[in-house]
Amino acid sequence: MEENRDLKARLCKLEARFDSMVDLATNKVKEVEAKAIETHSATLAKVKTCVIVELREQRLQAENTLKIRIGGLPQAWETTELDFSERINFLNETLKPIKVDHNAISRITWRGPDLPIPSGHAILEFESRECRLKLLQQSRLLKDTKFWIAEELTPLQLKRKSEELKKVHEARKQGKWAVYRGGKAIIQEFRNPKSALPTADPS
Q: Which CATH superfamily is domain 65-152 in?
């Protein structure tokens, strides 16, 4: 009987230890599950944020495919009351020999009380990419003047511009063809001309 009592006491202790281990394991599982859910939620939030940022950037870049920015314009550009046609004439008079086609422009934006555009800047929106390209090609005519014409860039592209230009300069030093276009460096290897076929030795 004493042995039975000892055995029962040991069994009770073992059961108590087992129950304690089960509770501890259950709590650990719950902690792991909670951390997994928290980590999963944080990961999903980060992915969602990255997707939203990327989609917004793509939308801005798509909108800018029809826009260019002109800088260095006189203060009269902002303060003078002019209608659309008069502003085009103002640009043509100021940017000679640059020629801005009235029919190619759908919208002009300049510095205003609610617009974060620097003083002396104008953003032109074109009817087509071809019209935009024609004006961009004339930008070389403004060399050695205070005026300039450039592609309209997104804030993210402006932030990365110096880094992309550095890539262009490094590539050119290595003898590669490189330009800065669309807010990024475009680099290609020059195609080497085909070597002449060896001629037969006349001797």
A: RRM (RNA recognition motif) domain (3.30.70.330)
